[in-house]
Amino acid sequence: MDVQVDHYIILGLPSGAEGAQISEKEITKAYRKKALELHPDKRPDDRNAHSDILQLNASYEILKDEKVRKLFDDLLRIRQDKVHQRSQHDSKRQRMMSDLEKREHTAFAPDLAAKTQEEEEIISRQLKEEIARIRAMQANKVASAIPTQRKEATVGGNGLDKEKMLKVSWEKIGDGYSAQRLRELFEKFGAVEDVVIKSSKKTLKRGSALVEMASKDAAVAATRTVRGDLTNPLLVLPLQPAVATAFTWLREQHVEPDGPKLNNLVGAGYQSFEVSVLKKMMQKAAEKQK
Description:
Blueprint: H1 7-10, H2 16-20, H3 24-38, H4 49-64, H5 66-95, H6 99-144, H7 148-153, E1 165-171, H8 179-186, E2 192-198, E3 206-213, H9 216-225, E4 228-229, E5 232-233, E6 235-238, H10 246-252, H11 268-289
Antiparallel strand pairs: 1-3, 1-6, 2-3, 4-5
Helix pairs in contact: 3-4, 5-6
């Protein structure tokens, strides 16, 4: 939001004294018309499409705020006065015929220019402060719209350890997965503190849940192993990746998963390769302990 921008021109409206008389209704009408014209969907090949619509929104925010608009109108008036003064100054210089008139002009013109400059700086500073206020208001609106996932991650109190939390999702086929069924699957890797099935009208095709394990190591093991039913596999992801030791992770690989050993993300072939590498790592670790 640059104070040098003429926001009336951005909205396609007359500026200056004429712009100051425009009603808020006319400003809104002009904004909607301009928004349709500059919408990025209508200019897919224009690199400036995104920045143009951002500038349009910023100018509209300023002109629809009564206090900020008043400051902006005052700033435009000061600038127009400066242009007018310069024009008068140039015409006077052409008409000056005596040294007395030249001395008078030299004596008083700097004071007038300094006063005008000072007034412009004061109004510019006030306008910047109001623009900062608008930005703060917009930031608060965004901050208040916390994503649903982050809200659910805080279920259970301020002391919740996110590294123990797992995000689980599946296709809504047949009976799907109940909280008890998920608990049975994940308890093979350690104690389960809680299972919360997420219910949302927006996700009609997929089911999802949050599973809280009793330990971080159990969460790591379950993330790499739980796959659910073959006909409706589970996608298990950590809410926040946990740091586990090599021995802890290797130990968890011996837990037999529920159902056929199929990896939802990379396939059984990669899993076999992964197991062979882990065996070699375990052998080397055992040799070091001797």
